[in-house]
Please model this.
Amino acid sequence: MTVEEFEEFYAHSVTQLVGQVYLMTGDLHEAQDVVQEAFVRAWGRRAKLSRAAGPEAWIRTVAWRLAVSRWRRRGRAVEAWRRHGAAQDAAAPPPDPDTVALVSALRTLPERQRRVAVLHYVCDLTVEQIAAETGVSAGTVKTHLFRARAALAPQLTPEEDHRV
Amino acid sequence: MSEPELRPAGDDPLARALKRAAAAGGRRIVPAPAAQVTVRGMRRRARRVAAAAACVVCVLAGTGAAVSLRETHGPVPPASVTDTPSPSPSPSEPGEPSASVPPTASPTTPPAGSATASPPESSPPPTSPGGDAASVTPTTQAPTTGSPSGTPPERP
Model:
C-alpha cells in the first residue's frame, strides 16, 4: 500500500472505525484516540497491509488492544480528553435518546460480549470471522451473541421491531 | 440449553440500531487530517529505527569491551588452585612455581653425588672458554694436556 493509498484508506474508513470502536469501548474520545494511534502504527507497516486482506480488521484489533491497555490508566486519559476534546463536543449534534439508551445498555455488557456484538451486528462479520478475530471458539461467540442480544433487546423501541 | 438463534445481521432491528449508533458516534468526531497521521507514522518509525540502532551499538560496544578485557588480562586461572593451596607441592605440575625446590629435582630422592644429575640453577656448570657447555661434565673431568679433540696421548 503506497502513501497515497494509505491516505485514501484512512479518509474512507476512519469515521466508520471510530464508530465501531466507540460502541466497543463506550467512550467516543477514547475510540477516536485509539483508532488514530492504530492508523499511526499501520503507517509503519503499510507495505504489509493490502486492501484485499482487510486492513480494517487489523486497525480494529489494534485499536481494541490499545483501548484495553488504556483502561488500566483510565484516569489520566479521561482527564486529558476533558481538557482537549471539549471544543469538538460543542460543535457536534447531540445523539438521539434511543442511541443514548442503546449505548448505555452496551456499556453494561461485559467487554467480550460487547465486542462480539459490535463485530456481528455493526461490522457484519460471521461467527467464524469473529472467532478468528477475537481468538475464541465459535461456540463461545454464539453464546456471547445470544446473551448480548437478550440484554439489548429491551432497549429497542417498538417502532424498530415493527420494521422487520 | 437450546442453541441460540442468530438472525442475519442485515435485517435485524438490533443491527440497524447499533449501526445507527455507530454512525452517530462517527459523525460526532472530527478526524485528524491524513497528513498528520503520516507525520506521526514517520516519527514513530524514526524512533523505532533509532532505538534499534542504539541497541545494536550497545551490544557491539559491550562485546568489544568484553573481548578487549579478556585479551588484556589473559586467561583467568581456575579458582580451586588459587583458593585452596596444596600443602605439599606436587612435582607433576610443571606450571606451578616453587620457591624452595628446583623444578628438575625430586624431593624424595635427592641425587647426592650423582655425576649425571643436572646441577641446580644457582650454580651453573663451568664451561670451557671456547667449547660447548653440553659436552663437558663438571665433576669427573681430569685435567688433560693432550689435544683438545679428546684422543688419549700416545705413550712411548
Chain B touches chain A through 37 residues (CB under 8 Å). Confidence is low (pLDDT under 50) at residues 95-101, 109-156 of chain B.
